[in-house]
Amino acid sequence: MSNESQSVGKAEVRLKWDPSPWNQPPHHLDIIATTYSADAAYGRPVYIVHFDSRSPDGTINMSRHSQTGQGFGYVEVMTLELDRLAASFARVVVGVAIHQASGPKSFGDLSNAGVLVLDGYKELLKDDFTQVAGSTAVTVAEFTRDASGAWEFHEMVRGFDSNPVIFTAEMGSAPQP
Fold this sequence. Notes:
Blueprint: E1 6-8, E2 11-16, E3 29-37, E4 47-49, E5 60-64, E6 76-80, E7 89-98, E8 114-119, E9 122-127, E10 137-145, E11 151-160, H1 164-170
Antiparallel strand pairs: 1-11, 2-6, 2-8, 3-4, 3-7, 5-6, 7-10, 8-9, 10-11
């Protein structure tokens, strides 16, 4: 995890992966964002955004979703308008989870998988999940609000071995030393 931080107003998280072979069930991945209040920055999420949902105020939403990986380039996209989030929010964590409905799959079972985090045209993070090949879910980014109210980006590539539902409860936990 990098200690460098960068100020961000609006971020975009993009996800790509190759479809599974024709004779196997589809690989289904999801971008997931969890929001945390200033009162409990490492507590329970205030709300969770994933496919088929958006934040109650419309500041975090999915503009593109894939259940198979089919398409060109990045096939799933989430937009986070951090500068519009209420002052009561102090932290947003973004991750990726692999659905396990058709049997266990880890990032090492996928081909051409990757995530890209952008601030406008500026690349904040690009990762191919190699370092978390044995994991079924991974956090990729953490956005925190500083004392001035500006949002800072922190790279947070950390693997988990859980399904998407359990992952939403674990992903915002404080990293273990």
